[in-house]
Amino acid sequence: MRIVHTDLLVIGGGLAGLRAAVGARRRGHEVIILSLVPAKRSHSAAAQGGMQASLANTAKGEGDNEDVHFEDTVRGSDWGCDQEVARLFVHTAPQAVRELANWGVPWNRVRAGAREVVMDGQRVSLSERAEAHGLIAARDFGGTKKWRTCYVSDGTGHAMLYAVSDQAVAAGIPVHERMEAIALIHEGGRCHGAVVRNLVTGELSAYVARATCVATGGFGRIYRVSSNALINEGIGAAIALETGVVPLGNMEAVQFHPTTIFPAGILVTEGCRGDGGLLRDARGHRFMPDYEPEKKELASRDVVSRRMEEHIRAGHGVKTRFGEHLWLDITLLGAAHIDARLREVKEICQHFLGIDPSRELIPVRPAQHYSMGGIRTDVRGEAVGLRGLFACGEAACWDLHGFNRLGGNSVAETVVAGMIVGENIADFLASPEGDLQVSTALVRGCVVPNRLASMPCCQVRAVSVLRP
Q1: Phi-psi domain of 63 (left: phi exceeds 0; alpha: psi -120 through 50; beta: other)
Q2: Which of 273, 282, 281 is nearest to 307 (CA)?
């Protein structure tokens, strides 16, 4: 039986986990990342639309600042977020997006002069300031007063994940792939690491760490139709809950995305509607202005999803042998725009629907997309009830999003929370609280295969480790 020792064990190889690992490594601590898949195949790569940061570079973003972003975030959370966390988030987001630019993320940039955009179904002309030329651009997203969603066409998560993963490689952080944490090792209110299973060989190992960070993403795959990857089963929340001392928060708060392709449930970015796409019913009628005359298709995601389901129940859905759906119309954007800024959407439509979205309507229906709930943490990212355990990203209930969230805030949260929590973990490791002494014999005794392998994973209890 193998025992691995490290300063920080990060469970999860997506954007949040990678960024937290980089932050701790920069402070001189040894870090190991566990990942179910190679890090660059984590679900973070599926994020399409962009990340929110109040840069105020574009014409429609003028006047934006931290206060406006804060107000949008609090309102978008149905007034349920932790406002101290929200304030910290909106302050750090511009730093995070500029750091990513420095790391090589090819953000779309402002081009000075006049340009045509589609707004409210009409082509209008916008003029960008000469002094803003070359700065990071932004697009419109639902629930926001200003255009602040920084983007890389519709492959934002992919570009961000590769850049941050490359930083982890450059820092010499090992990623142990095909490894699944199945229980947390803890005793006396102190986390000591995790019991880990090798998904290839089935071998059990103990990873003993002075600090442990859970960044395993959401739990969307408990739903029949979800935009989440197959690996998003909520194992991080599960092993935390099984300690019996770490609470989960806001687990009832689940977001449905309005536009996933029907019936597969694959995400079609909110950027489609932000760039001017419309929602239509079986008759071709644009119905969102009937329900939301002010924000229309760019009302917050929960509102649009509810209105779509309401419209279907009223008998206006398109009937198929798989059920009913509505249409997303981006044909008015034109082939050139789609090829340049929505090329991933085009590829998804071609491969999974066999259609060209520049000429045909996209069948869509709401599906589970994001989990606001997770491991309850304080503003520092440390789990409630267990010292030495941290969580960040979708796996955590940092309570940035409350009962709902703005599109683009979750992608931003991965790197912002990673920055903040990574620094807080480094502070913890440098303090006397970060010291750890655990008996190797007792750790070894906890992971004897015949004590765990005979039990279903969902019944494996967190292992207690006694100090010598």
Answers
A1: left
A2: 281
DSSP 344-359: HHHHHHHHHT---TTT
Residue 120: predicted pLDDT: 84
258 and 329 fall within a common domain = yes
pLDDT on residue 343: 92
Q: Beta partners for 326? A: 364
**Residues 273 and 292 occupy one common structural domain:** yes
Count Cβ neighbours within 10 Å for each residue of 124-147 and write b for 16 or more, e otherwise. eeeebeeebeebbbbbbbbbbebb
**Of 369, 386, 410, which residue is a domain's last?**
369
Domain hosting residue 205, numbered range: 1-105+153-253+372-468
**Which of 321, 462, 304 is closest to 386 using CA atoms?**
462
What total number of domains does the chain contain? Answer: 2
Q: How far apart are CA 226 and CA 204, in angstroms?
A: 31
Q: Collapsing DSSP states into helix, strand and coil, what is residue 226?
A: strand
3-state secondary structure of 304: helix
Which residue in 12, 29, 25, 6 sits closest to 169, CA to CA?
25
Q: Is the CB of residue 177 less than 8 Å from the CB of residue 38?
A: yes
Same structural domain, 247 and 259: no
- The answer to whether 151 and 2 are in contact (CB under 8 A) is no
Whether 167 and 286 share a structural domain: no
| Residue where a domain stops, chosen among 369, 388, 409 | 369
Which of 108, 114, 106, 115 has its CA nearest to residue 276? Answer: 115
Is the omega angle on the peptide bond into residue 289 within 30 degrees of 0, that is, cis?
no
- The bridge status of strand 31-35 relative to strand 2-11 is parallel
Angle between helix axes 15-26 and 156-170 (nearest 10 degrees) is 30
pLDDT digits (tens, 9 = 90+) for 300-358: 899 999 999 999 999 999 999 999 999 999 999 999 999 999 999 999 999 999 999 99
Distance CA 226, CA 236 (A): 18
Question: In this structure, are 186 and 100 located in the same domain?
Answer: yes
Q: For 232-241, write each residue's pLDDT tens digit.
A: 999 999 999 9
Q: Are residues 389 and 322 in the same domain?
A: no
3-state secondary structure of 251: coil
Measured at the CA of 186, the angle between CA 184 and CA 189, to 5 degrees, comes to: 130
Residue 338 and residue 270 in one domain: yes
46 closest CA partner among 160, 165, 206: 160
Q: Which residues are catalytic?
A: 257, 273
Q: Which H or E run includes 193?
A: strand 190-198
Residues 269 and 228 in one domain: no
Over the stretch 62-80, which tens digit does the pLDDT of each residue have?
999 999 999 999 999 999 9
